[in-house]
Design goal:
CATH class: Alpha Beta
CATH topology: Rossmann fold
Distance between the termini: 46 Å
Number of domains: 1
Largest sheet: 7 strands, mixed
Number of strands: 7
Structural class: alpha/beta
Radius of gyration: 18 Å
CATH architecture: 3-Layer(aba) Sandwich
Strand order of the largest sheet: 2-1-3-4-6-5-7
Low-confidence stretches: none
Helix content: 25-40%
Shape: globular
Mean pLDDT: 95
């Protein structure tokens, strides 16, 4: 660094120097960076264990330099339960998409929360199956077109979009449930604060924490990144409002 200059930002040490494979405008990379920053700032890199399942979320282990385990599709909360019970002194989190957490993994997610398992779930909700071709997910909005709902999601035939965070917030086993985004600078700052609290709450051993990210998927939404965020603000945020759903202070 040149003399006279002050370093105010540097790459998180926990973030690996690899090429990003995600689609342009995808939020996974931003969330990865925030996770790495939080892990660095809390000085818990050597005590953090992550669990990834199937889908776009599966490759998180290529980006963050911690110990990882890969779970079968939807089973990340079950695997995280076993890891946390064997290593109660570790900071354990899962990193899951909506197709994984709210579809094939619904039972694992709800029962882990109901038991009050002491780990964190990081939930990326972009209302669609990303990696497998853009099929309708449990979180797909009414009228939203996907490869398996080409005329738009019909509530009468396909049911309503599932608000997983609202469901989990009602369970006595959850300790902290919040819904955030990284759509703008303010959102990124709030999201980082939420992740920091969620990791720190594991020390209290009071139950499961969940941080949901209302996200975009430009490729499968067939939009540019900017168009996708405009659409998310108009459609996703009203249905999945941002903010805390359950906090320890309550």
């Amino acid at each position: 660094m040149k003399e006279g200059y002050e370093l105010i930002y540097k790459r998180p040490e926990s973030l690996l120097r690899v090429h990003n494979h995600y689609c342009p405008g995808c939020t996974h990379g931003v969330v990865h960076k925030l996770l790495a920053e939080v892990i660095d700032e809390l000085k818990i890199q050597d005590r953090t264990l992550g669990v990834t399942p199937v889908g776009c979320a599966v490759l998180a282990y290529d980006y963050i330099d911690i110990d990882w385990q890969e779970a079968a599709h939807g089973r990340a909360p079950a695997l995280a339960t076993g890891i946390k019970r064997i290593h109660p002194d570790k900071y354990v989190f899962t990193y899951q998409g909506d197709g994984d957490l709210a579809a094939i993994g619904t039972a694992e997610t709800i029962h882990a929360a109901n038991r009050g398992e002491n780990f964190l779930i990081v939930f990326i909700n972009n209302a669609i199956y990303g990696m497998t071709g853009g099929q309708m997910a449990p979180t797909t909005l009414e009228g939203m077109k996907t490869t398996t709902s080409p005329y738009g999601r019909k509530i009468s035939e396909m049911g309503s979009p599932i608000k997983m965070s609202d469901i989990l917030a009602m369970l006595p086993g959850t300790y902290y449930v919040t819904r955030q985004t990284v759509a703008d600078v303010r959102g990124v700052r709030n999201a980082k604060k939420a992740l920091t609290k969620a990791f720190q709450y594991q020390d209290r051993k009071k139950g499961l924490c969940l941080v949901e990210f209302v996200s975009n998927c430009p490729s499968n939404w067939k939009m540019t990144p900017l168009e996708s965020w405009d659409w998310a603000r108009e459609n996703m945020f009203p249905y999945y409002p941002l903010g805390d759903l359950k906090t320890p202070e309550e």
